[in-house]
Amino acid sequence: MKKSILSLASAMLLAFSANAQKVEFEEYNLDNGMHVILHQDNSAPVVTVGVMYNVGSVDEIDGKTGMAHFYEHLLFTGTKNIERGKWSEIQSSRGGSGNANTNWDRTYYYGTFPSNELKLGLWMESERLLHPIVDQKAVDTQNEVVKEEKRQRMDNAPYGKIQYGMIYKHIFDKHNYGRPLIGYIEDLDNAKLEEFKAFYDKWYMPNNAVLVVAGDFEKKETKSLIKNYFGTIPARTTPKKVKIVEPERTEEKRVTEYDSNIQLPAIVLAYKTPSMRDREAKVLDVISTILSDGKSSRLQKKLVEDKKKALAVFSFGRPLVDYSVYTIGAIPLGETSLDDLIKEMDEEILKLQTELVSDEDLQKVRNKFENSYVAANSSVQGIASSLVTNYLLMGDTKRINTDIEIINSITKEEIREVAKKYLAKNRRVVIDYLPESQKK
For labelling, which of 37, 83, 89, 104 has a CA lying 20 to 30 Å from the CA of 275? Predict the structure, then answer.
């Protein structure tokens, strides 16, 4: 009885927490096709303005890679009305800050300001869309910035090819997800100024973008400002997204990848999995948490704590629109071989495929996702990002409030069936991730 009462109390607390954290928002379209999402929260005098463009590295063409990520940097150069190199200075002088990020499916720019600087934030984002500086000097400057970022974050980062998706070339034979997110530097070096401008003209338009404003503002005034700054920007014909079908893998593939920044090897099991929009993608997130999230997770407890065969273990999904990627891996300890780690990991995968997880494991997962949900939406900047991501990538803004319901509705039987379906040996790529010094 005590256990039942505690379970009921936990369920009630979870439901109360989820309801308490519900994010209210309004969305509409401008006449030029730009989608707008507003989340009003007057509890603190701060506001985030963000614009997400429906373009990422997946949309680049062969020989012209790197453009999407390059623009993430280039569009901080300045505009016709913002002096070259003064973008960040203007933001910081008015108490604000900003940044941008790119992935395979989208590019996102955002700034967070004191709420009395909302007008500035909206104006700067409209300037980015209307009057950016795209000249040879800006291209040459940012080309060096991109190269330095690649050196620091990827080339010189231990196990960086795993973290930044450089190993995806082994998973995707046809799809553009197999290309590096940052593109190929030689493509950027060879690109002409006209080609950089053509990429901008092709993708950067109001009807290929989503504007989000979250925080301390008044709706009537904000809608008027949005209309003034963005409503007059003319729409253009949006380019057609090319859907590339990646064939299903029918037999296991084993490859070797080398990294000059490591001394210890790793073994990686990588799988192509469903779109981030699919319920099964959420089930795989649950599986990932069971396998390696925290000291009590299965791989951590077995390989690191008990058997001491691994220095570290990991498993994570990379949510993407067309397909996602699911990765399981471990770094051996002592004389443990990579094949021994594969055997141990396969035992845990088989358990997921043949046995139902415990009530305790399932409750732990739900608690972790609840904590993550609360953390992600604990600031207006986080809420802005969640709203615009759910609209553009997930296809439904309301997912900001329903994802936690999906997690809580996942059953033990679903976990078993999804593990059986997507973590089959004939669907995976096994990557021996070795120090460069072992290269023959």
Answer: 37
